What does this fold into?
Amino acid sequence: MTQRSRDSRRDAARAQQGARRPGWLLPGLGGLVVLVAALVAVALSGAGGGGSSARPTDLPGTSGGASGSSVPATDPVIGGAALPAYADPSNDTAVGQPIPTVAAAGGTIALDGRAKILVFLAHWCSHCQTEVPVVQAWLDAGGLPEDVDLVSVSTAIDPNRPNYPPDAWLAREGWTPPVIVDPTNTVADAFGLAAFPYFVFAHADGTVGARATGELAIADLEAIVDGLKRSR
It folds into this structure.
């Protein structure tokens, strides 16, 4: 074999090796790109994410800014000291404390010498959906004493959950009490909300007489209101 032939064979072998090289290099590079992209995605999600709280006032998906109402989505103005979180029905430390005051576009909670029933509602809460027509029927029948006010607070608003917007839901139920829209749950926090529906009963002097959660039978509601009136 001549030198020229050996050189030709060597050059051909090198050319074949060069042609085969992308066949194993490109998948490896592709896998590296995918790995880097995945690491970047994990880093970004960790930087921007956060665990959701189990508190009813800050439930997963709570909008925090959407009012779900024709009332402007502005935070109500709250005065006075916040009540402690409602935890022990048998020993509620809020009883006897003055309730906070609230000024909002949809209604007010004032220390005006009148006893009050405050009911906090979440549009997606099945127990609220059951309680609202029961309470409204009681109101329609004249059950609320003339010297007691009933004010509702629409809170924990979530555009991704049932019965949004809440003002449309309440309108369908024929709900007549004033509705304070609580777009960032500040009113709920100030009154120590723990679960839905949530009731706060205040004496005429503005102090807490009782608090309760869950569906209340009308007989229980009337018994609490009678207790408020007798304590004056």
Q: What stands out?
A: The two ends are 122 Å apart (CA to CA). The chain has two domains: 3-48, 57-230. The beta strands are 77-79, 101-104, 107-109, 115-121, 148-154, 179-181, 198-202, 208-213.
